[in-house]
Write a structure and sequence with these properties.
The structure is a homodimer. Helix content of chain A is 34%, strand content 21%. The first copy, chain A, is α/β, with parallel strands linked by helices. The termini of chain A are far apart. At the A-B interface, α7 and α9 of A face α7 and α9 of B.
Chain lengths: 252, 252
């Protein structure tokens, strides 16, 4: 029976995991993990590197981040429930880093979803950070890799979210177009459907989102517009020894 | 800001939960749970009631089901990994029940995903079973209810699956069309996107599914075609004291 089905030839798989809690179900045989938290942690990370920061240390707890408040050379950033945690000057807003000279600085960051996903997948052979800001640069780099790739959505408090999944669909489409990658999981096909529904206007993701989230997101509209604008950066943050450092793709 | 956003007026929510493991994240304030396992457990349940069975007892383990093998008046059904468990005559194939006279019989059934989802949600105020077979009857009944509704997909071994999610989108669209229900969760919007992508031909779900699953499903093609054919039954299985019994909608 199998012989009767046209089987496309591909060398590696690219799959989508919708929530960090499901990571163990999808992690097997996946050498490269792309952590995605479009609104807003991974967008903020790319923006910070784009503005010169040396490294970002993702931590799980507010307490860990708090130890770095006021320490020379460090920026402590903490977000919970979409807001900057009391006592911190930075949360997960990428615009907080734009236009600043952050050269030589280290950011220590904890967020509700994104840094949690990073810590969940920190033992992957390679872990990189994705956002619309570095969509093309990341996709080009991924196509060059000879390994299976898992696109890990950070979701919202372990729930599925729309913008991370649509972004995963956008990356996946570029990888599938290369002919080098294929998919096996239903979640991957679903992400592609979602991307196809939203592709002409990423801001439509906001409009399509349910009322409660739409309201939350519109209160963040400048941030959200920034986070949904593709290809503002050639930087790909990559995890080395527990710290995110800069990897920069040359112009295509 | 909130006042500036047009807010649709609806009384109740209808939401989608993609996997049984996420049920606790979505269950709050949900009075009615619809358990969905399109391929094939909930389709088999509707088919069994359509063919006269009195009641279905969903059990979690093969051992529980095995006790009923050969007991007069009982049919023991057990499926694991898509196959009938050794020693059983029935698994989760709906076609096994079609054309039989099952009046007066009780089925004791355990399946990989569907009965697990039922047991997860068994404390809901009302629990009913959905499949393409009873799509219209179920949707009509749901629209009459005055309560929040959770569409609980059984998935595949805790992973997201496409056919359950597309079916949830189909039910949701009918509930949204009534104007009585609205959504708050991103998963619900995503299910609607998926349904819109697949609506013209439910068998396209099979074709869209990734290679490995497509092969598995094609081996079940007669079953799959049957499970994806809407509106073959006006029966809605409903849980009462741990047993599924027949509720029948009159013709519209």
């Amino acid at each position: 029976m199998e012989g009767a089905i046209p089987v496309s030839e591909y060398k590696y798989r690219v799959e989508v995991c919708f929530t960090p809690g499901h990571y163990p179900l999808y992690a097997q045989d996946m050498g490269i993990v792309v952590v995605i938290d479009v609104l807003r942690a991974t967008s903020a990370m790319v923006a910070a590197f784009e503005n010169g920061v040396d490294r970002i240390i993702p931590v799980s707890t507010v307490e860990e981040a708090r130890r770095y408040i006021g320490r020379p050379g460090y920026i402590a950033a903490a977000e919970r429930n979409g807001e900057v945690v009391e006592g911190f000057d930075y949360g997960n807003s990428p615009l907080a880093y734009v236009g600043q000279d952050l050269r030589g600085k280290t950011i220590v960051m904890t967020t509700t979803n994104g840094t949690k996903a990073i810590n969940m997948a920190k033992d992957a052979r390679k872990l990189v950070v994705g956002s619309f800001l570095n969509l093309s640069a990341l996709s080009e780099w991924l196509v060059q890799q000879n390994d299976n790739i898992l696109l890990l959505c950070s979701g919202w408090k372990d729930k599925f979210n729309l913008e991370d999944s649509v972004y995963a669909g956008a990356v996946m489409e570029r990888l599938l177009d290369s002919g080098k990658f294929g998919v096996e999981e239903d979640s991957s096909i679903a992400a592609k459907y979602m991307f196809m529904s939203a592709r002409d206007n990423f801001l439509s993701i906001l409009k399509a989102a349910p009322r409660r989230r739409r309201i939350e997101q519109l209160q963040l509209l400048p941030d959200a517009k920034y986070c949904l604008t593709p290809d503002q950066s050639r930087v790909i943050p990559i995890l080395r020894d527990g710290e995110l450092v800069r990897m920069e793709m040359s112009q295509p």
